[in-house]
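Progress against Task 2.4 (sequence-to-structure conversion) is shown through the following example record, which the project officer requested during the mid-term review.
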Amino acid sequence: MSKFVIVLNEDAEIDGEQYDTLEEAKSVATNILKQLHGDSPKSLDDFEDEVCGHLYDEKDSVDSLTILEVTPAVFPDFGFMIFNGLEDYSMDEGNPDDEWPEITNKDQDELNGLVAKWLTDKGYTPNWINVEHSYLVEAQHD
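Structure tokens generated for the chain above:
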């Protein structure tokens, strides 16, 4: 399930508030930009929980924020990777046949589940997120 985060730029470490919808994130980002450029401007530090990233120079103006749509990382298909690797290995080792014996989808899925469970049980789970899309929100200057 996708979540949305507000960042200064796409290189920022994602460690802030996550929003369930793009509309909610856009609303928060628009409100932050209004407060940064309002009659009594606030500092970006006032929004450290909502906005990921830091300014290189505190004097820099923030005229836009980026919203990243992110999803948690998942394991690859280990069953496919293992059987594909075995096929390549057998050919490298001189197997006269062009292919490793045919694998069924059921066996590939079973092997994938076994490897993923073992990795999960040992604590080797993906600890990153994938960025799917980015959306720019610009300050509206009156």
